Amino acid sequence: MKKLIIINGPNLNLLGKRETNIYGNLSFTEFFDTIVNKYPNISLEHYQSNIEGELIDKIQEVGFDYDGIILNAAAYTHTSVGIGDVVKAIETPVIEVHISNTFNREEFRHKSYISPNSKGVILGFGLQSYELAILSFLD
Ligand code: DQA
């Protein structure tokens, strides 16, 4: 059984309440429950933190034995050399995911410290971006 984890960064705990015109009305928990039921043959976990160092600790913890990490580092995508470095340091492949299309938003969202060290990037498909990333890990 494939072992995958979705790691979400700051403010993604507010999905469903936050800027719903951009991020939609569904909470991440509601979305996650649907996905877990839809893919019973995958071991799928979810971790969220608003704290940069906690995200780095989690990526280090899972990054040598999980089959895949689906990472939405949210605002830290555009600022964090530390998260970029840990994605490079680990062995587990990382798919960078964003709900919105960061390239049709403000210029500061066009820069990513994660992309150069990711296996791939999926963005702009709403919450479906996460599901597309999961599918990319299946045979
Ligand atoms: C985001 C895009 C980021 O620019 C932003 O800071 C987020 C969410 C997305 O999923 O679209 O918090 O990562």
Structural descriptors:
alpha/beta; Rossmann fold; five-stranded parallel beta sheet; globular
CATH superfamily: Dehydroquinase, class II
Order of helices and strands: EHHEHEHEEH
Distance between the ends = 11 Å
The biggest beta sheet reads: 5 strands, parallel
The backbone outline, from C-alpha atoms, is globular
Mean residue pLDDT: 96
- At the fold tier of CATH, the topology name is Rossmann fold
The overall strand count is: 5
Q: How many structurally independent domains? A: 1
Q: Portion of residues in helices? A: 25-40%
Amount of beta strand: 15-25%
Molecules bound to protein: 1,3,4-trihydroxy-5-OXO-cyclohexanecarboxylic acid
Structural class: alpha/beta
Poorly predicted ranges (pLDDT <50, ≥5 residues)? none
How many helices? 5
| Neighbour order of strands in the largest sheet | 2-1-3-4-5
CATH class call: Alpha Beta
Which architecture per CATH?
3-Layer(aba) Sandwich
Taking all Cα atoms into account, the compactness measure Rg is 14 Å
